[in-house]
Design brief:
With about 240 residues, this protein is mainly alpha-helical. The chain has helices at about 45-80, 80-95, 95-105, 110-140, 145-175, 180-205, 210-240, and strands at about 10-15, 20-25, 30-35, 35-40. Helix 1 runs antiparallel to helix 3, helix 4 (about 110-140) runs parallel beside helix 6 and helix 4 (about 110-140) runs antiparallel to helix 7 (about 210-240).
Length: about 240
């Protein structure tokens, strides 16, 4: 008969009824007492996923904030109307981080799916805005000014948005999050808009003012394609629900 604590190269402990048992290792363990199981040193997978999702949303938002700040500086220096349109567009799109971040914070699959739909809607609005600008440029063609500054701002926007897109798309694939994938495509959309601004500035500088509305139409088509791609991604997730 054994009294006191039993030690078998690990940790041991006594229960209130006098029985003693040992764990042969000192690492994390779980045991079930009166039907209440609990584990030590384990983190709920949904918490890990929530943290990873919030990190991706926050990091990409930081990249976009730095991009927009650089563009604001150039806008203040030049007063370019074309750049102002791109800036308003970028600030508006940054707001999609709010429902997506909230969904990860709540660890809610339903909220994540609705956030995905909000992102798709935002991309569609981007396409509509780009289309309106294209039609306006065809009706009353007006070559943009401050071409060098516009080109630099476009390059900054293109690089910043593509970096944000890579962060979101990688995290979206890793976490199997259609909403985060859609937001990655969304950032890529903004990158194409900024690329258009840059190309337009370059071609107008070369003496081809018609390039401005033509590029605007091409960008509208690209954004509509990305809208459809994002809708397909989010729609499949709704079917799995």
């Amino acid at each position: 008969m054994t009294t006191g604590y039993l030690e078998l190269g690990g940790e041991s402990h006594r229960h209130g009824d006098g029985t003693v048992h040992a764990h042969p290792h000192g690492g994390p363990h779980s045991h079930d007492e009166a039907g209440h199981g609990h584990a030590h040193g384990l983190v709920d997978p949904s918490i890990k996923r929530s943290r990873a999702g919030l990190r991706a949303v926050g990091l990409s938002l930081g990249v976009l904030a730095a991009t927009a700040t650089a563009q604001v500086v150039i806008y203040v220096a030049t007063g370019s109307v074309a750049l102002l349109a791109d800036l308003i567009h970028n600030f508006g799109d940054a707001l999609t981080a709010v429902p997506l971040g909230t969904a990860f914070l709540l660890r809610s699959g339903r909220a994540e799916r609705y956030a995905g739909l909000a992102v798709v809607f935002a991309i569609f609005v981007s396409a509509c805005v780009a289309g309106v600008f294209a039609i306006e440029k065809i009706i009353s063609p007006e070559a943009p000014t401050h071409l060098l500054a516009l080109g630099i701002a476009g390059a900054i926007g293109c690089l910043g948005n593509e970096l944000a897109a890579q962060i979101r798309l990688r995290a979206g694939r890793r976490l199997d999050s259609p909403a985060l994938l859609a937001d990655g495509y969304h950032a890529r959309t903004d990158g194409f808009v900024s690329l258009g601004v840059m190309l337009s500035a370059a071609l107008v500088a070369l003496g081809i003012p018609l390039a401005d509305p033509v590029i605007a139409i091409v960008i509208t088509g690209v954004i509509l394609r990305i809208t459809w791609q994002s809708w397909e991604t989010v729609r499949q997730d709704h079917h799995h629900d």
